[in-house]
Amino acid sequence: MHEGVTAALFRPVRTRNAFEETVERLLQAVRLGVAAPGERLPAERDLAARLGVSRVTLREAIRALADAGYVKSRRGRYGGTFVAESLPAAAPREAPAADLEDVLTLRHVLESGAAEAAAARALTPADRQTLTAALLEASCVDTDELEYRRRDSRLHLAIAEAAGAPSLTTAVADVRTRVNELLDAIPLLSANIEHSNAQHRAVVDAILAGDAPAARRAMAEHLDGTAALLRGFLSHA
Predict the structure, then answer these.
(1) Do 130 and 217 reside in the same domain of the chain?
(2) pLDDT tens, residue by residue, 163-173
(3) Residue 89 belongs to some domain of the structure
């Protein structure tokens, strides 16, 4: 691997979405050919140090990429993590990279704003019950991909509805449809589900507490994690 390019790709990630950004960095290295098919990735300790993540987080990311067919782990004296000889075909997408960024930017503006607006509003008991129920529902699925997407979508729409602006809810529904089309093209990663559930709780807790800045920050962090995975899997070299 070219050391200069490797250093640029394997720079420290932001810790709030460490797993998702680690997956993105590793995918970038593979897709750009910095780590060629059959080539061994840097040693786990070295790679974790470069990325600024724990070895547990790094192992979760490597496991996710192994499950998706991008890398293989070998044991023994000459073991380690190697880029797969034959990489999965890039997920089929008609939209160019600019459209991916368009969707992610629009979603960030709409949904972080919706969370902030919901927290700033005097919620009714019905609003609170709906948010709490949607959060619980979204947290109870971890293997059924289609059902998880549905429940995740319903939670995000419930947050938009809590903002009390029907036009905003419609806009969030529209962008969520576009996002789901992208999410359907990438693997559902168990570590990401666990992380998303924790972030969902942080968003809803901030809204119920009436802390608008915290709600906006929590939603922005959550969206950044999803965006990192989408860029990693769907961006083409």
Answers:
(1) yes
(2) 999 899 989 98
(3) no
Confidence of residue 28 (pLDDT cuts 50, 70, 90): confident
Shared domain check, 79 and 149: no
Q: Which residue pairs from 102-105 have beta carbons closer than 8 angstroms and sit at least 24 positions apart in sequence?
A: 103/175, 103/178, 103/179, 103/182, 104/223, 104/227, 104/230, 104/231
Do 156 and 211 fall into the same domain? yes
d(CA 232, CA 209): 34
Classify 210 in phi/psi space as left (phi over 0), alpha (psi -120 to 50) or beta: left
% of the chain with per-residue pLDDT over 70: 89
Q: How confident is the model at residue 237 (pLDDT cuts 50, 70, 90)?
A: very low
C-alpha distances in angstroms, 102 versus 74, 107, 162, 223? 40, 9, 25, 14
Joined together, the tokens standing for residue 142 give 């971890």
